[in-house]
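[audit] Reproducing an earlier prediction to check determinism. Same input, same settings, fresh worker. If the tokens differ from the archived copy the diff job will pick it up downstream; this log only records the rerun itself.
[audit] input (509 residues):
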Amino acid sequence: MNSSLYYKNMQEFDLFIIGGGINGSGVARDAAGRGLRVLLCEKDDLAQATSSSSTKLIHGGLRYLENFDFKLVRESLVERETLLKSMPHIIWPLRFVLPHHSGLRPYWLIRLGLLFYDYLGSRKILKGTRAINLREHNSGEPLKSIFKKGFEYSDCWVDDSRMVVLNSRDAKRLGAKIYTRTKFDKAERKDGFWDITLINERSKEAIKIKSKAIINCAGPWVQNIIENNFSDVANSSLRLIRGSHIVTKNLFKNKYNYIFQNSDGRVIFVIPYEEDYTLIGTTDVEHTDLDKIFCTEQEKEYLINAINNYFNFEASKKDIVWSFSGVRPLFDDQKASPQKVTRDYVIKTEDAQSNLPLVNVFGGKITTFRKLSEKVLNELKPYMSIKNKWTAGSKLPGGDFDTENFDQLVNEISRKYKFLDQRWAYRLVRSYGTEVINILGKSEKLEDLGENFGWNLTEKEVVWLIENEWAETSEDILWRRSKIGLRLDEDQVKRLDAYLNVLNKNKNN
């Protein structure tokens, strides 16, 4: 090890978690709430990889019914309303329109599948499925005239990267330590503990800790962690599947959400996004190089062609303003087709007869992170005292209001801070819920919020994100804590960068 590195005082934990995605942050929160001493480390920013690159849906996965993944669909559907109630600012219901394509699945089969979807979901808040006449229903307006019949059903939308941040914030509130830009270096069982070394990626400082258990939630890197550090662990096969999305300017006037069947058996979601845009995805492509994750030209063409089969206008790659890709770390169940590989999670525990467990987490969906967290803690019961589960009826930061009162909260914020217009107030409440008051504080006029970097991203909000949400760079703020990056031009981003540089210099002096 480089001589410039040094060890901090040793700290002891019950649980050390590798990976700051949705599974890692969910486990950290659940464990901290049960009184365990928890440390989570993430080599980059929270939700920097797969957990900020999803289709952003809390859903059962309608097409998974064809794979007979009934357990996964059932668990996911039940979770929709549990999560909706716990974070109603960043999760909200959507109605999807599914046009019937006569050349693909039969009408009766889709109808039966949707009825089963409703039955499995145990709905109390979300509306049920209904058949619609696309010639009369407003959702049929942008569709080709050949589509006459369809269905409407419910699922939920989520701001995926903010969900990770909120779980991490609540974990910290409950006593967990969250280290970002900190890389897991090595671990060995020694003297009744895991002896673990971390590297601070900013300072290259080494940090030594001890832990009674390690939870490997590294997502696409879970197998790399095992192979590079735990030679005694039995091999598990991980299959990396890339899902890419494109974002265009609004393609149609109405605000309906669509799900289209594609001829290869996949489905494509088309969703109004960030008020002025349309989100289209996703693909399923085998992936190998984790240093190069991006939406290829072929994937862009695939998505454009897929929606052009349904809409009565021609979209093109020229309409794309942004694209993003995430790699799903799926457990290899030896299915030939990428879309057939199970999205269910697999949890494997190794202890090498040492009573010091290593729990490796493969796969999973953002929808099932809370249930996955509970099951990871169940794995630890033979090794330590684990209190009863608690997260089902809990609220995440900013989510302490009822789902149906969102608009009321926006109006309350608008009345309290009269300098906010309705669109600004709406954005703040969608991001922070009741914590908007903590951010704006006693501000009485625009000038109290400091510099405006564009699209009403102010100094007050930026400082909050730095001090409370582990944001460090403009990318953290513009693309993971928000999607304001879609709005700002190059000069505005440079202004934000300059401001962050000054803050960093002042902090280091």
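[audit] rerun output stored. Observation attached for the diff report: The first helix runs from residue 22 to 33.
[audit] end
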